[in-house]
Automatic annotation (TrEMBL), chains A, B:
GO terms for molecular function: DNA binding; DNA-binding transcription factor activity. It comes from the Bacteria. Transmembrane segments: none annotated. The keyword DNA-binding applies. The keyword Signal does not apply. Keywords: DNA-binding. This is DNA-binding MarR family transcriptional regulator.
DNA sequence: CGATATAGTTCAACTATTTAACTATTAAAT
DNA sequence: ATTTAATAGTTAAATAGTTGAACTATATCG
């Protein structure tokens, strides 16, 4: 073990927590009447087109009952809809409504402008290598989860 | 604007959210009876030695009333203590109790082992440059906040 | 002195989360 | 084929975190 691993860990813990807090606060400004978690839930569902509660619980690393609560709120807001699978009647598919798609599209535009104003302060090489390492970390965390 | 900035932003939004969720879930395993936010609050207070509610609210990017609620819970758990400033009696200083210091020290050891097992899967250069970019981002977010 | 600013708290309302117990449905075993 | 297991999702109670508005107390400034 290198002597400065300890220091690197300290720096990582501090900076990751701080950036997350500040980023969440910044993003929140663009999401009237919706929360950060709701935005990311819609984002994920939109990418997958259709998905289940269990899948969301795994991806978001929370219990299924937390997903039930969150999706209830999104259904109330008419952002998503539930559709029971006829082959396996235990399964309920979740998907965005037209209203959900519209809201997400508008929001993505705002968020992109926001992130773009930050990201363009770095060189493309720096950002590319930063995101690559970040993605590598995501894979390691994913594998770690699967082995548990 | 480069043609792939859009794609970089998408990748960043996805990966940052995912890593954060997974990391929080991992860290939580090491924190019996305490929450992630409580851990980071103690961590920050420990580094600063002594601090105020207003400072915490600014750093954690939340309202002061959120800090009151959180510090109440930490006082109940006897992890921190409040001490009124005699010069300016509006101000209340927060600091860790002995119990808080002990708990934090033990927890830091566990978290360090956890993060170390992840971080050592990268080369030192890769981690160093990753954290540097991360810190640069933190500074940009900090400045952005100050100008608002 | 009186107005204004600052530090912190309280309260009501809401979101997010966990755990345990539950319903409904499917798959597997004998 | 019928009982047993597992799977998908919900419900309910409890706790944590958060906001915003109204509030108390204290300090500063003109």
């Amino acid at each position: 073990m290198h002597s400065n691993v300890h220091e690197l860990i300290e720096r990582y813990l501090s900076v990751s927590f701080l950036v997350n807090k500040k980023a969440v606060a910044l993003v929140k400004c663009e999401l009237d009447e919706m929360t950060n978690d709701q935005y990311y839930l819609l984002r994920y569902m939109s990418k997958r087109n259709v998905c289940t509660s269990s899948e969301l619980a795994a991806v978001f690393a929370v219990n299924k009952s937390a997903i039930t609560a969150m999706t209830n709120r999104l259904v109330e807001k008419e952002m998503i809809q539930r559709l029971r699978d006829d082959n396996d009647r235990r399964v309920i598919y979740l998907s965005l409504t037209e209203k959900g798609k519209t809201w997400l599209a508008e929001t993505e535009t705002k968020i992109h402008h926001l992130v773009e104003s930050l990201i363009t302060q770095f060189s493309e090489e720096e950002i590319e290598s930063f995101i690559q390492t970040y993605e590598k970390l995501a894979n390691i965390l994913q594998k770690l989860e699967e082995t548990k």
